[in-house]
Every structure is written in structure tokens, then in C-alpha cells.
Amino acid sequence: MTEHAPTSTVYTASELIAIMAGRLLTDGQIVFAGVGIPLLAATLAQRVFAPKLTILFEGGVIGPFIKPGELPPSTNEQRCTRRANMVLPSTDVLLLLQRGYVDVGFMGGAQIDRYGNLNSSFIGPADKPAIRLPGTGGGNDISSLTDMIVAMKHEKRRFVEKVDFVTSPGWLDGDDSRRRRGLPTGGMWRVVTDLAVMGFDAQTREMEVLALHPGVTFEQVQDNTGFTLRRARELSVTTPPQAEELALIRELDPGRLYTA
Amino acid sequence: MSGPLVKDYETLRREIAARDRGLREKVMSLDEAAQLVADGDHVAIGGCTLSRTPMAMIWSLIRARRTGLTVSRSITSTEGDLIFASGLGRKIVSSWFSQGIVWGISKVMRHHVEKGLAEFDEWSHMAMGLRYRAGGMGIPFMPVRSMIGSDVGRIRADEVRPMRCPFTGEELLAVPALNPDVALLHVQRADAYGNAQLDGLQFMDIDIAMAAKKVILTTERIVSNDQIRRAPDHTRIPFFTVEAVVEVPYGSAPHECYGQYEPIFAQLDRYAALTAKDPIGGVKQYLDEMVYGPKDWAGYLAEVGLETLLTASRRGRVIYND
């Protein structure tokens, strides 16, 4: 990214999240991406700085290059296979997680807690839910078996002390509880929102603010969070979205299917 | 499936042994194929989300007033709404259930599950796949390393078993084999015997075919056995698993069929608008107009509209045109 590129201050929260999350990927990685912002962010990274990024979709796709203006409605349609290296049965692409070929899993989230556990199944008790959400899909498999980036809007109702239901395991109850309960690999690495970038304390596994987006204060992040956040000793500020990134995002999603 | 969680191995073997596995023609109509499904069967559905959904066959089962099915699928979209709302099935076993993220959460699914009118049993996507695979392999379970430690595994405690690896001693989770009574699969082409070739995304279709007691195949077109034999490496489902072959052009509409047509977005948007406003009345109106109303599948396609179908076909064929 050029340092002197002109910047635009007009962007949606979704565009900001997609740009900031995409920057966390590294060229050459293998990333298992969910539909929506993760798919968009990974495709953006591919085009801006990571041409050798290999994207996997749960529909069975290895290494596609999504065509601008033709975003798929899920990761299971033919639009997901454009310029891919291979298509596998979906079970076998998920098994790549279990075998260990995936560097990072990348998903959205409806509800998250202090230890990075995600809920996409039930609001209220599972046997009598107030809201039945769509469920795990591959989310439980991805988060059980690899390091995770989660991209979501920063709202108090989404950042809760304890999720109603652990669909996708983060650090469970913190400390070494994830390993003790039978998940020796993977874990929640980064949470990217429209306010900040967060990680998890290496010991307690509590969520910690690492970087604020331009113009955002720590207090603002805390006010939009339903539990007490840790604060990194050296809190940094992210580079604002660059014109090139915004232009590419709008080229990929001209109909604002994912970025409304 | 009522009764034991995993089908007894000798029963599974007897069921296969009892079937006529010879090379024979099985071409029939949608109505005839619907007779091969019994009330209460466990029916597995091929494809995934909006892809290669055997929609015409599901449509036909609803019209035949089949009821009480347990239905399983990797990921469930609008067909799940229709299955619940028509009474075709009261239990769906799947990893995800809604129309698709761009349309939000299914109001019809929510209504049925939250009111206790129907069940949506959630498994992880990989666990669904490994259950079918174990079924297709003739073994009673598969060990997995997901669904452990989370509530997804906890709420399935009656159906999964923690296990210790007999070699390494590590903790794994055993998920039970799934051997459906019937598999409904839609493919691009098949011959009259049921040799099926499918293009693009395969999802779990091959495992489902091998796991099921019988397969009902719908196909965009029936081709000659000679054509199949010219490219046997493209055949994914062997004829002896198949009990019925039905030629149904646009048999996945309004969902997609890889390389043939994309999802019919105009129909999906209309359905989403209908059910968002009124989940009960909206889906009833859709069933009346689009399922019970048309004289036959061609009549249904006429309701979808020629121009809409042509647009979807143009977009579908783009995949071969880069």
C-alpha cells in the first residue's frame, strides 16, 4: 500500500471492516472464508497485496478469483468457482481443516463474548429459543480446527459477557480451557469491527483492544461492548482506508450485496 | 428415522442384496417417482444451499401429499421452508437453514421452530458429510475433531459419543453413520440406467448416493449409455444405486444447476418479500401459486417466466465462456 495514496473519509461500516480485516491476511496463506464480508475481504487482499492467497470455500472450492460484480449468494454456487484450481466434495474441503492445511479461518459473527466464542444458533435457550438463527454451517468446524479472524459490527448487543450458545468455539472459558476440553489446535486470533481490531491475552485469553480505527477512542469501543475489555499496552491506530481499496471494494460489490 | 440411531449392518446388507442391481432402464415421471417415497421415510437431499437442489422432486412429493418425512441436507435453503409449511416433513437435519445471507434469516423456519411446530436438528457441516460418508462406507460411525467442546456437540449428546482413540488415546467425537431411506439428487445428465454425471460442485452427493437405500435421480437431460461410456471418468454415481431416473429440465429452479442456469434471483427475491411480510400467509400463497396450482412442471416453469429462465440460463453458461 502506498503511503501517500489519497484517502477518502466516506465509507460504510461494512467497507471499513472488510478493508481492515483483509489487511490481516498474508500473501501465500491458505484462508477458509465464509460468505459476505470475509469473502469480500479475502478477495480484496488477493487483488491489493496477496496474489498468492489461496481461498477455500466450504462448497468445495480451492483457490478461486471471484469476478467483480458477480458475488455469490453463499459459498456454494458456481460463482464461487471462478478461476479456481480445483473443486472437491464439500466434506473433503472441510477435511483440509482437520488435516492442517489451513492457515486461517475467516467468518462473520452474530454474537461474540469475552473469550471469542461465537453464537449463530440460538438467542435464548436452545430448547425454547426467542430467535432460531440459521446455525453453524462450517463455522464450528473452522473455529474448532484453525486460527480465526472474525469480522463483525461493533454493537453492545453483539458483544456480550457470555453468548447464549457456543456455536463456534473461541477460547471457551479462557486460560487453557479450549485445550482441556479437547481442542488442541486453532483458536480465536483477531476480531475486526468498525471501531477497532482486537486480539486475545496470551494467558487469560480475554479480548484485548490492539488498535483503534482513525477517530475512534478506547472509551467508545468500551461503551459499545457488553463486558470489560483489556487494553493493549501500546494501543495503535490503523491506517485509514485507502482510495485504491475503496475503489476495488466497490468494483467487487457494485450492488452493495455485502457492504450495504 | 425412528428406531436405532445407526442402521444394523446386516439389515443394510440385506436391503442392497434384495434390490435388482442389474443394468435396467428406470426412466419414469415425477409422479411415478414420488410413489417410491413412503410417509415417514428419512430422505436425504443432494446439492447445497441454492445449488442443484432437486426442487422438482420435492415439489412433486409435496403435491403427492407425502407427510412426516425426516429430511437431511448439508445446508438447507428455501426448500426447507416448503417442506415445513406443506407438512411434507417435520424434522430437518442440517448444518444451516435459511434462504441465504443476502435475504436474512428465514421467517418461515423461525416460525416453525420457535413455535415448536417442527424441528431443525443442527450438526456441523463436516459432521453431516462424515455421517453420510460413514453410511456410504458401510461402517457405523466416523471419528471427528469438531463439535467438541462447544454447544453444537452438547445439544446432540443423545446422538454423538465421546470416544478415545484405540491407538493414541486422544479424545475424539464419534458421529453416527447416516443411511437414508431415499436420496433425492439432481444432476446435469444421466442415462436411462442411472449412470449420473455431474459438473462443477459435487457437495456430498456421491456419499449420499452410496449411503442411501435407493436414489431417485432427476436430471436436466437423459443421454445415451454410449455417451456415458465415452467419458466414464465423468460418471460420479453408479447406476446400481439408482431406482428412478426422471428427466426434468430446470429441475432445480429457482435454485441453480452448475453450468446450466444460475439461481433465479427474481423468484428468490419475490419469495423473500412474500414471507418477510407474513411467514404463514406468504408461504401459503407461494405453495398455492407455485406448487399446487400449476398443471405440471412445465406449468410451474411458465409461472417462473420465459424471460427469467433465459436470463438465468445465460448467466449459468457464462462459466464455460471465460
Give a written overview of the molecule:
The complex is a heterodimer of chains A (260) and B (322). Helix content of chain A is 23%, strand content 22%. Chain A has 260 residues and is of the alpha/beta class. Chain A has one domain (13-251): Glutaconate Coenzyme A-transferase, CATH 3.40.1080. The longest helix of chain A has 12 residues, at 37-48. In chain A, 54% of the residues are buried. Residues 1-6 of chain A have low confidence and may be disordered. By secondary structure, chain B is of the alpha/beta class. In chain B, 37% of the residues lie in helices and 19% in strands. Chain B has helices spanning 9-18, 30-34, 55-63, 78-86, 107-114, 125-137, 151-154, 205-211, 225-230, 265-277, 279-292, 297-304, 306-317; strands at 42-45, 69-73, 89-94, 119-122, 141-144, 161-164, 171-176, 182-190, 196-197, 214-222, 235-237, 242-247. In chain B, strand 1, helix 3 and strand 2 form a beta-alpha-beta unit. In chain B, helix 4 packs across helix 11 (279-292) and helix 10 crosses helix 11 (279-292). The interface between A and B is large, with 56 and 60 residues.
Short structural summary:
The complex is a heterodimer of chains A (260) and B (322). By secondary structure, chain A is of the alpha/beta class.
Keywords:
heterodimer; A: 260 residues; alpha/beta; Glutaconate Coenzyme A-transferase; ten-stranded mixed beta sheet; three-stranded mixed beta sheet; 15 strands; globular; disordered N terminus; B: 322 residues; nine-stranded mixed beta sheet; three-stranded antiparallel beta sheet; 12 strands; transferase (chain A); transferase activity (chain A)
Task: Indicate the CATH topology of the largest domain in chain B.
Answer: Glutaconate Coenzyme A-transferase
**Average predicted local confidence, pLDDT of chain B:** 97
Cα shape of chain A:
globular
User: What can be said about the biggest beta sheet of chain A?
Assistant: 10 strands, mixed
Task: Assign an overall shape of chain B.
Answer: globular
Question: How many helical stretches of chain A?
Answer: 7
Got a strand count of chain A? 15
**Assigned CATH class of chain A:** Alpha Beta
The second-level CATH architecture of chain A is 3-Layer(aba) Sandwich
CATH topology of chain A: Glutaconate Coenzyme A-transferase
Mean pLDDT of chain A: 95
Approximate strand percentage of chain A: 15-25%
Spatial order of the strands forming the largest sheet of chain A: 4-3-2-1-5-10-12-13-14-15
State the end-to-end CA separation of chain B.
45 Å
Weakly predicted, low-confidence segments of chain A: 1-6
Class by SSE composition of chain B: alpha/beta
Helix content of chain B: 25-40%
Protein name (chain A): 3-oxoadipate--succinyl-CoA transferase subunit B
Pfam family, one (chain A): CoA_trans
Keywords (chain A): Transferase
GO molecular function, one term (chain A): transferase activity
